[in-house]
Amino acid sequence: MLPTPDTSHVPYQRVYEPAEDSFLLLDTLSSPSETAFLTSRFGNNINTTISTSSQPPPPPPPLILEVGPGSGVVIAFLTAHAQTILGTPHVLACGVDVNRFACAATAKTAARAIAEAKDDASSSSSSSSPGAGFFLDAVQGDLVAPVRAGMIDVLVFNPPYVPTAELPAQPQPESEAEQQQQQQRGTVVRGGRDGMETTDRLIAALPTALSERGCAYVLLCAQNKPEEVKEQIRAMGGGGGGGGGRWKAETVGTSGKQAGWEKLQIVRIWRDYDGVAADTTGS
Amino acid sequence: MKVLTLNFLTCAVKDCKSSNNSFPLHPKDAELVYDDLEINPQLLVNVLPRVDWVALRTTSTELGFPELPEQPPTVEELESDEKMLQDLHKLLMETQIMEGKLVCGNCGHEYAIREGIANFLLPSHLV
Lengths: 283, 127
Description:
The complex is a heterodimer of chains A (283) and B (127).
Chain A: H1 20-29, H2 32-42, E1 63-67, H3 73-80, H4 82-86, E2 92-97, H5 100-123, E3 134-140, E4 152-157, H6 176-189, H7 197-209, E5 210-221, H8 226-234, E6 246-254, E7 264-272
Parallel strand pairs in A: 1-2, 1-4, 2-3, 4-5
Antiparallel strand pairs in A: 5-7, 6-7
Chain B: H1 3-6, E1 26-34, H2 41-47, H3 53-62, H4 75-80, H5 82-94, E2 95-103, E3 110-114, E4 117-118
Antiparallel strand pairs in B: 1-2, 2-3, 3-4
């Protein structure tokens, strides 16, 4: 088990506390199937000496972006354990969150997790090199709007509306207006009418936002009708990245526990180039 | 916000995405601080192909750094030039814009940076 980043500094009155959904993302991203997938796309054997002119250049460092990182626990985990999860420490990580407090929390969580990973590497008896990536910034914004097209190699999105049961406790409403406010907040938290309005916008942005080798991990709950969502993704066009790959969407992690109707799953979304052109996955 | 981050960002306004003038965003009234980070030459060498060099030259000049060469250094040049490595490390990784604005060259919208965090949320009339 890779250590979970420390989030004890995060102000939970203003930023969502890591819950079952976050931990499912950590488990899934560090699972054998996903580390194998990510390493095949982005891994880089850094034990060889710095490339010389006779060697092909190493793959450029992947840009990893979490949309709505909240406390930052997931992006910090990915960055701190980049060598283990992505097969290279040469990873650039960033976050976009609508909440300014989440941006500040994420930067701090990442900095602490990276420092801890470096400490662990230097104190352990093995000669393993520190495997942490480089955290850039968390910026305030709406989904991927501030990011240049075709830049994102790994996108992680944990929509803010699940699991409802795990939401921070609400103070009792003291007035009718407050009660109304809380109900409105509940609607936002559950992602609108069928819990998919924000996720639909993110999925629609993927063909433009992702690089050709890019992939996305999106958390869905049973109420989102994940089978229908995956079918919609598979029917998407190739998008701005060119390359002509076919869109794939597969469930790569599920919560073992049945949290009411909100059974959670992680869907991996990526372009597959098999039979289309040269295989860029290196597999 | 780091200078390297700026190289990956653009104006959030939809109509600006197709304009060459929306990238790079132009720093205005920028207050800089310098982090003290350990240099990682391998990471720098690997990152360089991902950097839009023309945009970086613009940003560098606008932030008051010495002018960068017209062409990015090759891997061999970078590996054998300690000063170039140090300069790029300082510019890309250590320099942070703590306060100021980022201005879109297409629509003129100004994105505020406060305490190092840039705000790309748009007012409702620009969404």
